[in-house]
Amino acid sequence: MKKILFIFILFPAFMLGQAPLKGVVYEDDGQGNDVPLPGANVYWLGTKIGDVTDFDGVFELEYSPSYTKLVISYVGYQTDTLHINTNRRIKHRLKATNELDEVVVAQRKQASKASYLAAQNIVNISSAELLKAACCNLSESFETNPSIDVNFSDAVSGTRQIKMLGLTSPYILIATENIPAIRGAAQAYGLSFTPGTWVESIQITKGAGSVVNGFESITGQINVEQQKPSMDYPVFVNAYASASGRYELNTHLNTPVSDRWQTGLYLHGNTRSQKFDRNDDGFLDVPLAKQINVMNRWQYTDSENGFVGFFNVRYLYDDKQAGQEGFDPDLHKGSTDFWGSGIETQRLDISAKVGYVNPEVPYQSLGFQVAYSNHKQDSYFGLTDYDITHNSVYANLIYNTIIGDSRHKVKTGLSATYDGYEEAVQFTDFSRVERSVGAFFEYAYDDLENLNLTAGLRVDTHNLLGTFITPRLHMRYTPWENAALRASFGRGKRAANIFTENQKLFASSRSWDIRDAGGAIYGLDPEIAWNYGGGFLQGFYIAGRKAEVNVDFYRTSFKNQVVVDWEDPQRVSFYNLDGDSYANSFQLELGYELFPRFDIKTAYKNYKIETDYTSGKKSAPLVPEHRYFANAAYETEVSPKGSQWKFDATFNWLGKQRFPDTSSSPETFRLGEYTPTVSTLNAQVTKVFSPSFEVYLGGENLTNTKQNSPIVNAENPFAPYFDTTMVYGPIFGTMYYAGLRYKL
Questions:
Q1: In the predicted structure, residue 112 carries a pLDDT above the cut 80
Q2: Which of 253, 291, 409, 668 makes an SS bond possible with 444, Cβ 3.0 to 4.6 Å?
């Protein structure tokens, strides 16, 4: 680890190179606040080198020491000429050439915003939203947004899982820059493999999603946009330390290679070597862990000829050790002296995206995506070994054009996937190969006023799932000003990876029972579901300040499902659905700017999820029917030197949750029918000293809520009824953390 830290510290000096000049142009909103100014012209005096600021007011220019005068202009604003002697990132405010006291139009960009214009129900999360919490990795990036539920980690791996519309992440298509990424063998822990600082923005889509990205999405899609070498800082360093013994260091190093090529090296390392057992049950509250994560990105831009491309190579090594406090894997693995678990993962990702826009006909474009990954996990849970190697290849060709005029747009293309699994539980081999080829067509209509819709259809042929059709439709209508009424429906189909998606169940004394129904994968048929629903978004003003209410309802109805039945405390069974299974999700959200730079967001969610088990219809275990969420964020004004304070707090309340049935257990190991309610409060304070340096201090679970006995029969981990899966709340208690960010 010391060598890794040395590389992180030494490498910035190596990579500085001749970086471009980057900056942001602002205007005054009339109340002393800086608001990004899009469309401003920025150029070097006496040259033809220039740029136009984007929606966030950001520009980027080629830099040379010979360029000393920078001109910034915008219609209606005073033109400024700045004297530049370094390529340090700049921030400049333009002054209006005239003042209109009668009318002041001001808007502050929201860190998290629902789209009023898209046919799909999309929530955009910017990097500013991610900075409201520690966000060490992607699994922790949704804690300040109510659209995604972040589950408490299980009692062994410490890994958090997410849910959308009441269903777990395997039913969500999770993509990195629109390439499906967290799937197959990566389902259980893949969210923790993307460092939070690598994330530029996140787009959350409720509903079945687009046919362009595949047929597996059922409840929605999450797309993660990563930092771009051309837009990221030449040097960025983030250091983090927590009271749970976690230490983390992130370094981004970006530099131009030529006029068209830029590259970035992204380095991440984290470690936890300190043991904690605050509830005195003999088991670690959080696992020991270490991770090395390295990514090299290359960006190619040829605007003149219409080409752009991204090329990525990433290597990951992740190692977790959990179990009893006295467990030593070198001494006790495979024995019954101490119960322990180890999960070692190595992963290689290679991907490329190439896009071409016809300079003569801008509405015609062609895109090609290709990705390869090798995911190797060696793990054990007590005396049970679980190993999986997943080789995956994905390719997607997309052509965009219009029909007649720009109101009618179409996307069409071909896609192919290959998934080779080498999977073994103890000495039983479950290896298989999946291959699919598909074609898709998506039509989008936009009347440029009140109505737009997206209708898609794809046909896929799969060597194990057969040939099938996937239809999807999304529609938005604006009945009046600042309103959006949406509806959608779509079909999804997927093969359940029953072992990798349910690994936490290995950490119990349960036996595994697969009821072979003659299906192609594990003897089970594929999962098929329809998702339909819609929502209403309305923006309005209260006391002259912007407010927003968003309400939606979705239903996921399974035509077939692989039921994970752990209602027997000594057995987990997998079988095809015989009967009915559905998930209803209702959400009501309200956002309001209470006073300048102080935003509040509240949400209520209600889930009704029921499945026909062999023992009868039951609600989903450990899923609260009622949830309440509240977030408050305040920022002080930015001083002339760029200093600022930021305050953020998030409150979550979870209603009672149904425990899986333990009535057949001995009385000592029986649990009640429902869990208690759970309340947690997270808060963070950030001090921005300058545009280049800031520090933050935060706390998670400040209410110190704890589930004191999360492990059933912890005293006898190799005996019947041992179970680490009955987790409904925090285990560690209050956890404080601190960190810093440095940008050059």
A1: no
A2: 409
What is the separation of C-alpha 35 from the centre of its chain, rounded to a whole number of angstroms?
27
CA distances from 571 to 16, 568, 613 (A): 58, 5, 14
CB 457, CB 441: distance < 8 Å: yes
Q: Which range among 190-194, 405-409, 590-594 shows the weakest confidence by mean pLDDT?
A: 405-409
Q: How far apart are CA 28 and CA 57, in angstroms?
A: 13
| Displacement of CA 728 from its chain's centroid (Å) | 22
With a CB cutoff of 8 Å and minimum separation 6, the contacts of 92 are 23, 24, 25, 26, 72, 80, 82
* Average pLDDT of the residues in 544-567: 96
In degrees and rounded to multiples of 5, residue 11 shows phi and psi of -65, -30
CATH superfamily to which 226-742 belongs: TonB-dependent receptor, beta-barrel domain (2.40.170.20)
Q: 94-98, 365-369, 608-612, 649-653: which has the minimum mean pLDDT?
A: 94-98
SS3 249: strand
The strand pair at 21-28 and 90-94 is best described as parallel
**Residue 88 pLDDT:** 74
For every residue of 428-490, DSSP letters joined together read EE--EEEEEEEEEEEEEEE-SSSEEEEEEEEEEEETTTEEEEEEEEEEEE-SSTTEEEEEEEE
> C-alpha distances in angstroms, 196 versus 347, 359, 367, 569, 588?
18, 36, 27, 37, 28
Contact 172, 204 (CB under 8 A): no
> Please, what is the average pLDDT of the chain?
90
Q: Stretch 417-444: mean pLDDT, rounded?
A: 96
- Residue 648's pLDDT is 96
Locus of tokens 């707090």: 649
Q: Does 2.102.10.10 match the CATH number of domain 2-94?
A: no
d(CA 273, CA 264): 30
Tens digit of each residue's pLDDT (9 = 90 or more) over 320-379:
999 999 999 999 999 999 999 999 999 999 999 999 988 888 789 999 999 999 999 999
Where do the domains of the chain lie? Answer: 2-94, 226-742
Q: Which residue has the higher pLDDT, 237 or 406?
A: 237
- Distance of alpha carbon 656 from its chain centroid, rounded? 26
Planar angle of CA 84, 89, 91, nearest 5 degrees: 85
DSSP state at residue 205:
E
Q: Which residues contact 428 (CB under 8 A, 6 or more apart)?
A: none
* 535: its two tokens: 């929502």
Full-model pTM: 0.85
Contact 681, 126 (CB under 8 A): no
